[in-house]
Amino acid sequence: MRLNELSPAEGSRHRSRRVGRGDGSGRGTYSGRGMKGQKAHHKGVRLGFEGGQLPLIKRLPRKRGFTNIFKIEFNVVNVSSLNVFEEGAEVSPKEMKDAGLIHSLSRPTKILGNGDLEKSLTVRADRFSSTAEEKIKAAQGTVRKA
């Protein structure tokens, strides 16, 4: 089969209805647009037009804008929250979930530098803030990217 041999399936294509071509056509005179007026004379009104009333899109300014589909939502854990683990423990997102620090393992985990770490821990996470990394190393802990 070649490109020049391709054709639509039998019966899938219809001729478009020819409106406004005389009274005998079945769609003559007003061509399905009724009598006089804005909808008969023009293509209609623009999207969102409400007849001069302030449109919904202007009445609700907070609804404008867009949602970034590439935004990554992180599980956020502060360094101070890691004090619940024992000295020398290896802390991964699974251990954090078991301890109730994060809710879901489907999101990546990020460690932030709020608070102080009093124990030496090996912390495994997807991302670390620079202050969190400094505080973990200052407590003789190690940082590993998961």
Helix/strand layout:
Elements: H1 38-41, H2 56-59, E1 75-78, E2 90-91, H3 93-98, E3 109-112, E4 122-125, E5 127-128, H4 130-138, E6 142-145
Parallel strand pairs: 1-3, 2-4, 3-5, 4-6
Describe this structure in words.
With 146 residues, the chain is α/β, with parallel strands linked by helices. The protein has a domain at 75-145: Ribosomal Protein L15, Chain: K, domain 2. The chain is built from four helices and six strands. A three-stranded parallel β-sheet has the order 1-3-5. It has a three-stranded parallel β-sheet with strand order 2-4-6. The radius of gyration is 33 Å and the shape is elongated. The model has no long low-confidence stretch (mean pLDDT 91).
Task: Name its key features.
single chain, 146 residues, alpha/beta, Ribosomal Protein L15, Chain: K, domain 2, three-stranded parallel beta sheet, 6 strands
Largest sheet: 3 strands, parallel
Relative helix content:
10-25%
**What's the CATH class label of the domain at 75-145?**
Alpha Beta
Shape: elongated
Query: pLDDT below 50 for ≥5 consecutive residues: which ranges?
Result: none
CATH architecture designation of the domain at 75-145: Ribosomal Protein L15, Chain: K, domain 2
| CATH fold descriptor of the domain at 75-145 | Ribosomal Protein L15, Chain: K, domain 2
Percent of residues in β-strands: 5-15%
What can be said about this structure in brief?
The chain is α/β, with parallel strands linked by helices and 146 residues long.
